[in-house]
Design goal:
Structural class: mainly beta
Number of strands: 54
Strand content: 35-45%
Shape: globular
Helix content: under 10%
Distance between the termini: 28 Å
């Protein structure tokens, strides 16, 4: 149908609608159900007969409509149809989520808890350096988030790793950076204030006469290092000034300094019933950590605890005993009688934490990455596990006998999920977590936290401890499960294997590709990984199966072109898209070695030429079963606005018979891309599954669904009411991952790190 005819039909529809509105304004006709029924049928017949359709994307009920458009473009001499048309929708969908106990609203479980204080009534106050939605510090009660400690985000502001509370105020550690506002109270350029900030018990800033900052609620304690510990007793506030190796004491009401005394490397503080201080002395080089004992006047007392590996939190329980979070291999809360020389009289949690029994398997009493301990007046126990390298919040309350009462999870930050193809999506993985799914349950209730797959004690060189991966590929290669991870900048591709007999649920480091490097220096700065080549790119393979990077385990190359994206196909072959004309690299799987590691090499790498429609290739997905290649990037006809390195490009194209040398696209889709440079509707990520191509936009987080056979748009998906009809920006190049189940249902996972979860769309024909 020609564009001219479509234009006339649209005008006709507009005129019909205007007449209908005029007719229907009479009171009689508005009340007349027979008339309205006949009018609806008549309009439906007219609209259908002229071929103008309205598309509906539904959650429980249809709420979204989309206009139809069709563009017939001539590209070069191909006279190729560029698909912008919309089919009648064939999919309905519902929105769900995984990884956060609370799926919507401002009061949801925060990304991390790095410090906590438990009040006698069981209210839990928390603090952390960063939360994407601005809830660095929060208030929990009875398993719910009941409040946020406000104004800790933005304007170069952040939280910290200490918090305490008295009968009038909340005190948190925080940082305030410069903003160049000379007319307001901000630090000078290049200076950061490390502060204690005071709040009332509802979480609103509580200023004081000599307070600093825009609202006069900040007490500057240092410009060199953050506050490492806080505690109150009577009208005195005790602050660990780590940089100065001092404990500073302030009046809780006036916030004036009363005195200070020396403690080397002071950390968390608690105060016993005798009004003496117990202070964690942090590890310093070869000197191990300790727990020291001081009077309130600053005199060091002879008692101390030295037989501990990594104390991270400390508290006094309702019986006056000292609780210490041991974040070393024991992964327990240790209990000490401190009436005389400290004597360990108990412990809480399974010895070895999450690595006890079946390593990695989540159980009520298996802890991991402890950052907070405490009890209430009734003896209930509160413990937060933060994982390792800030994996996420796992806050639990136990009865005095050790029975789990409630648990609040906030496990997701800059992450996405993928489904295990062998279990038909029943097992879902993110970069560190394994979830078991029950799709018969209500939205947000389908997931159960099954396993934590990172073991820093057995595999301290695990790349997840030293980098920030986010995009997850789950693959079955020769029937065996593998996990592949990449990052926000497509810098690398990490490979993990599983061996339940030796490592339970833990993912074992097995290999790693790094990207490309245009300079003659190591690709990764610093001391990790050991033995990395001094220049060029490399592939690491764990030949002896010990999970360590060793000198004889690197394959080297000087293939320097700029990286666009990664892909792992169903056979286990690795593909790399480069932003050059010879910009496709294919690494065929060379087998699986005796230790279970997949084998790749530069000697077997194939260089393939980018189809000439692209001048900047960004993403690649190849399906060997059908010999079909999907590529995205910027094209000769629709070039990039500047470099714009974080997006998919301006078009997606499908190529059939790829291995036979075909480079003529079956279709080309023009995808959302903002040429103003603001990236308001630019496309962040793409994923192909079954009969559909899915693409998600950066700022609006809308999912565009295209027919994989024709390239025609089927519909758009938006977050439904189940997640508050909202989403943050898509920050990562693999922020969408689609999977088709055996019953024809599609699972579409979308990154949503703003509110700390992965959104999951469920689409059924």
């Amino acid at each position: 149908m020609s564009n001219k005819l479509i234009t006339e039909l649209i005008k006709l529809r507009h005129h019909i609608n205007q007449h209908i509105k005029k007719i229907s304004k009479t009171r009689y006709l508005q009340r007349s159900k027979p008339f309205n029924f006949l009018l609806s049928v008549t309009v439906g017949v007219i609209v259908t007969s002229i071929g103008i359709t309205t598309d509906w994307a539904t959650t429980e009920t249809p709420t979204l409509t989309y206009k139809t458009s069709l563009t017939n473009n001539t590209i070069g001499s191909e006279n190729l149809l560029v698909q912008n048309n919309i089919e009648t929708p064939t999919l309905t969908y519902k929105t769900s989520w995984i990884g956060n106990t609370i799926g919507s609203g401002n009061l949801r479980v925060q990304n991390n808890i790095e410090a906590m204080y438990v009040a006698p009534d069981g209210t839990v106050y928390t603090n952390s350096h960063w939360d994407e939605a601005g809830m660095e510090a929060a208030i929990y009660k009875d398993g719910k988030v009941i409040g946020a400690i406000g104004d800790t985000h933005g304007w170069s502001r952040g939280g910290g790793k200490a918090v305490t509370v008295n009968s009038k105020y909340i005190y948190i550690a925080m940082t305030q950076g410069s903003k160049g506002k000379t007319n307001e109270d901000y630090p000078a350029e290049g200076t950061t204030w490390h502060c204690v900030r005071r709040y009332d018990l509802s979480g609103k800033p509580a200023p004081f006469p000599e307070g600093r900052g825009w609202d006069k609620s900040m007490l500057i304690t240092s410009t060199k290092n953050e506050v490492a510990g806080l505690a109150t007793m009577g009208n005195e506030l005790y602050v660990s000034d780590f940089a100065a190796s001092r404990i500073r004491v302030y009046d809780t009401d006036t916030m004036k300094e009363l005195r200070s005394f020396t403690v080397a490397n002071p950390g968390a503080i608690t105060i016993d019933p005798q009004k003496n201080l117990w202070i964690i002395q942090s590890k310093n080089g070869s000197k191990p950590a300790k727990v020291l004992h001081y009077s309130q006047s600053g005199k060091q007392l002879p008692q101390q605890i030295a037989d501990i590996v990594e104390p991270t939190a400390i508290a006094i329980n309702h019986q006056g005993k000292l609780l210490v979070a041991e974040n070393g291999p024991r992964q327990q809360m240790l209990v000490y009688d401190i009436t005389d020389q400290p004597t360990q009289v108990g412990s809480f949690g399974s010895k070895g934490g999450i690595y006890a029994g079946i390593p990695g398997e989540v159980r009520d009493l298996k802890l991991y990455g402890l950052t907070g301990v405490g009890t209430d007046a009734s003896g209930n126990i509160y413990i937060n596990s933060n994982g390792f390298n800030k994996s996420g919040t796992d806050l639990r309350k136990f009865s005095p006998s050790g029975k789990l009462i409630w648990r609040s999870l906030g496990l997701i930050f800059v992450d996405n999920a993928d489904a295990d193809p062998k279990t038909d999506g029943v097992d879902v993985f993110t970069k560190q977590e394994h979830y078991l799914m029950d799709y018969s349950q209500a939205a947000g209730k389908q997931w159960t936290y099954k396993a934590y797959t990172l073991n820093p004690f057995k595999y301290p060189q695990d790349p997840r401890l030293h980098t920030s991966p986010d995009g997850t590929f789950v693959r079955r290669i020769q029937g065996k499960p593998f996990l592949f991870l990449t990052d926000m900048y497509s810098s690398f591709l990490q490979i993990y294997r599983f061996n339940p007999a030796t490592d339970g649920k833990v993912a074992i480091p097995a290999g790693m590709f790094v990207g490309t490097n245009g300079e003659d220096k190591p690709f990764i700065k610093g001391n990790w990984p050991p033995h990395q080549p001094e220049q060029g790119e490399w592939i690491w393979g764990d030949r002896n199966g010990n999970g360590k990077f060793e000198k004889n385990e690197y394959d080297r190359s000087k293939d320097y072109p700029h990286l666009g994206g990664w892909w792992v196909d169903s056979k286990g072959d690795v593909w790399k898209a480069l932003r050059t004309q010879d910009g496709i690299r294919h690494y065929p799987l060379q087998g699986i070695d005796a230790k279970g590691n997949p084998i790749y090499s530069y000697s077997s790498m194939e260089k393939q030429t980018t189809p000439d429609i692209f001048n900047d290739l960004r993403r690649i997905e190849y399906f060997p079963e059908t010999d079909t290649m999907y590529l995205s990037g910027f094209t000769v006809d629709r070039p990039a606005f500047g470099d714009d390195s974080g997006v998919v490009g301006s078009e997606i194209a499908r190529f059939d018979n790829w291995s036979q040398g075909n480079r003529t696209p079956r279709w080309r889709i023009v995808i959302p891309y903002d040429t103003t440079g603001k990236r308001e509707v630019s496309t962040a990520a793409m994923s192909v599954a079954g009969d559909y191509v899915f693409a998600v936009t950066v700022k609006t987080a809308e999912v565009y669904v295209y027919n994989a056979k024709t390239g025609a748009q089927v519909q758009q998906l938006k977050p439904g009411p189940e997640v508050g009809s909202e989403s943050g920006w898509i920050d990562i190049p693999y922020g969408i991952r689609a999977f088709r189940r055996s019953n024809g249902e599609y699972l579409v996972f979308v990154e949503e790190n703003w509110k700390g979860k992965v959104i999951m769309y469920r689409l059924a024909k």
